[in-house]
Amino acid sequence: MTDTTRPTKTFDRRIVEGPLGLAVWRLAWPTMLTNLIGGFQGLIDQVLIGNYVGHIGNAAIGVSMQIFLLVIVFVASIFTGMGVLVARFAGAGDYDKVNRSVYQAFIVSLVMAFGVLAPLGYYFAPSLLQLINAAPEVRVEALPYIRIMFVFSFGMLMFFLFSGALRAAGDAKTPMRLGILMTVLNVVLSITLILGIGPVPAFGTRGAAMGTVIASGTVGLVFLYLLASNRLVIQFPRTMSFRPDFVFIRSLFRFGLPAGFQGIVMNLGGLLMLRFIGALTFSAEAQAAYAVGYTNLFSFITWTSVGLMSAASAMTGQNLGAGYPGRSARSARLAAGFGLGLASVIGAAFVLAPDALLAVFGMTDGPVLELGRQLLGYLAVSGLFVTVAMTFTGALQGTGDTKGPLYISILSQVVVPVGLCLIFQTTRGLEPTDIWLAIVLGHVTRCALSILRFQQGKWRGIRVDISPTRA
After folding, report:
1. How far apart are CA 434 and CA 423, in angstroms?
2. Could you give the C-alpha distances from 105 to 133, 243, 302, 412, 421, in angstroms and in order?
3. Phi, psi for 243 (deg, rounded to 5)
4. What is the tens place of the pLDDT at every residue in 53-74?
5. What's the DSSP call for residue 192?
6. Which domain holds residue 272?
7. Of the candidates 298, 287, 277, 268, which has an alpha carbon nearest to the alpha carbon of residue 415?
8. Does some domain include residue 432?
9. Distances (CA, A) of 287 to 48, 155, 275, 280, 449
10. Residues 6+ apart with CB under 8 A from 113
11. Terminal Cα distance for the chain, rounded
12. How crowded is residue 315: how many other Cβ atoms within 10 Å of its Cβ?
């Protein structure tokens, strides 16, 4: 039996009926704020580790997160499929199918977290660290960190799942509030567990992972409570059938799997770049510069862009579901314009004050400072292209075109940067600036191809067909 009663909160019709610029901004700013605050949490972890453990700890967190994200983005691919369904059904005003789509994604996430990530991540962690050519001293710090992240990944999956569902349904403020709560918890826990306060011992690098999983697990439980209490636009009513519905699950994977493979490709490209970095003369210093510059500081551009990507996805999906493809196209271009403005401001800080930014992480002299300064200069340019690429990727995925971004990622995130590094390595020897240039050219390629794919307009004909809900 199902519950078709509307929840207390209803879908925001301004997404499909109101001014486009305001609608995009309403969806984007809460996510951007959440991600920027979350970025400060990651930055605080790296600052504490850099000053307490040293640059080896910075490198350990950097390589661990590259591996963790490589795996978790595939597991979380169903969230993209769920977002496609939720946006379409929300645009059409179908509350029941929105709720069922989210619940079926929740069932699959439980299986993935406890049946795949926890056991396999723990077992294969040493091999994965060796695969990316992490320095021996980095592997010592990284192994306990990455094992904790894998075994207790459930909370983070739940946060991504429910945040994505609510944003696709038009509610970006609830994920913002809970995201801020998670960040505050994480900061307090990280300071306590990394440094050790009072009776709590200092766990160093492991403390950063412990703080992350405890905070995300707590917020994941809060999300579940809110979904069951009829306080959100999405709900899990007690009268809804809680058995697996393979009609919905097949659709989740139909749209989600290409996005999952895209995530793997993008993070695999990052891992291969780390492998090239590991072969440099100052490998540990270069890995630390990459972890701080690319994984942390550059995240202020990428996480801001994720907010616009999410907004573009919800806008294109809901307007397509409501029968307004023209609004879908215009909203993607508006979101990209917002991204360019923000990336320009952040990139200027990379160029004008690189030493001050790196000094926060304890990088004040030697090869690690020079490498970090170089990388930030390249990333200031790269950010302009990656924000536009991510926005149009979100627009494509929101309409149901998840295969196009996959093909684009294979070419731009693997073939171009890895191919260039291989050419440099085999012809004259690889230099750090060769790797930084390869990263930029990969982002330029992704930007150009994403715009071209969207302009082709094939997404206008994609249909989302779900059989009638069974009682």
Report:
1. 10
2. 35, 12, 25, 29, 39
3. -85, 155
4. 777 777 777 778 777 877 777 7
5. I
6. 16-458
7. 268
8. yes
9. 17, 28, 9, 9, 29
10. 75, 153, 154, 157
11. 4
12. 30
| Among the listed residues 418, 395, 396, the one whose alpha carbon sits nearest the alpha carbon of residue 407 | 396
DSSP state of 200: S
pLDDT tens by residue, 407-435: 999 999 889 999 999 999 889 888 888 99
Half-sphere exposure of residue 266, counting CA atoms within 13 Å on the CB side?
22
Read off the DSSP letter of residue 238.
T
Domain for residue 454, yes or no? Answer: yes
pTM metric for this prediction: 0.78
5 within some domain: no
CA dist., res. 256 & res. 21, Å (int): 28
User: Vertex 305, ends 161 and 375: CA angle to 5°?
Assistant: 120
The span from the CA of 171 to the CA of 200, in Å, is 38
Residues 61/45, Cβ–Cβ less than 8 Å: yes
The total number of residues written for the chain in this structure: 471
Total domain count for the chain? 1
Q: pLDDT band at residue 7, thresholds of 50, 70 and 90?
A: low
The half-sphere exposure of 114 on its side-chain side, counting CA atoms within 13 A, is 6
**Residue 4 domain flag:** no
SS3 content of the chain, % helix, strand, coil (to 5): 80, 0, 20
The Cα-based distances of 199 to 114, 186, 203, 209 in angstroms read: 32, 19, 12, 19
Residue with tokens 């504490």: 48
Max mean pLDDT among 64-78, 150-164, 264-278, 385-399 falls in 385-399
Yes or no: say if 55 and 358 are a contact pair by the CB < 8 Å rule.
no
Convert the pLDDT of each residue in 138-174 to its tens digit.
888 888 888 998 999 888 889 888 988 998 888 988 9
Count of Cβ atoms closer than 10 Å to residue 276 Cβ: 23
